[in-house]
């Protein structure tokens, strides 16, 4: 099975979504590139699908523009668009669950996350 057409379509969709979020935040592609530590040409390549990039770079770029990359099985899902309010709701729900659980893993992760936000 030739997966190339699907991969190209997904990369184009990712590039469009990253660009739309970047513009909505008022960032230039140079701004995002500087925050991620990559070149402006690499950033442009991500948005226009002119080059493949490392997954770490894609994840870093997505985070800068407020998106998250999710993988399920062997199918790549589009970047998830969550508003700040939706993220807060998820964190609160997870915190409530963590407070009722004997497993401290989630509680520790949430504590670490919230300490970064207040710093």
Automatic annotation (TrEMBL):
Annotated InterPro entries: Cro/C1-type_HTH (IPR001387), Lambda_DNA-bd_dom_sf (IPR010982)
Domain of life: Bacteria
A molecular function GO annotation: DNA binding
Protein's UniProt name: Helix-turn-helix protein
Species: Micromonospora pisi
